[in-house]
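Example record for the data management plan.
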Amino acid sequence: MKRNKDEAIERLEDKTAPLEEVKEIFEAYRDDMEVVGQVAMNLSLRTSVYDREKEGSPLMVELLVELSKVEDMGSRWAVAKNPHTPAEVLAKLAGDEVNLVRALVATNPNTPATVLQSLFGDEKIVRDGLSGNPTTPPKLLKILADDSDRMVRMRIAENPSAPIELLEKLMNDTDENVAKAARTNLEKREVAE
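Corresponding structural encoding:
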């Protein structure tokens, strides 16, 4: 029995609904971008920034792959930022026509280094995404550390993978908050050693 659209949307608002049910709704309403967007939102709500493995499953990956193919930009945006999105899907989304989708690919730690390298020549919002990604190659972070945008430098100063020499350089940044973030990052590393 196919549920009506309102019931489907209401069910998708529950991030604890079984993924099998989310998939069933997606398949029933694949051509309805409002419902598809709610499927993407449901998957986003399930994934924790703090526990990247939470909700990881083959079914989650299957849904992310399918959502990466839809016309709804919000759905592709949700896929681009999801920690369970496969590298090959991120590589495809790195060529998306929407700059925000590409920017979120640039922030995703699962994005392959070769794809991150290709995004370095993209527009500013996309390059900004690279600065906080812990898997951005150090040579790109080194270039970005000289960026005129203080937020780019701030994200590098907070990046857990930023090379120590970059953090030492950013400790002397003209922006007080960037310098403080670099000091804090270095102190955390010293405590961890």
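Summary line stored alongside the record: The chain is about 65% helix and 0% strand.
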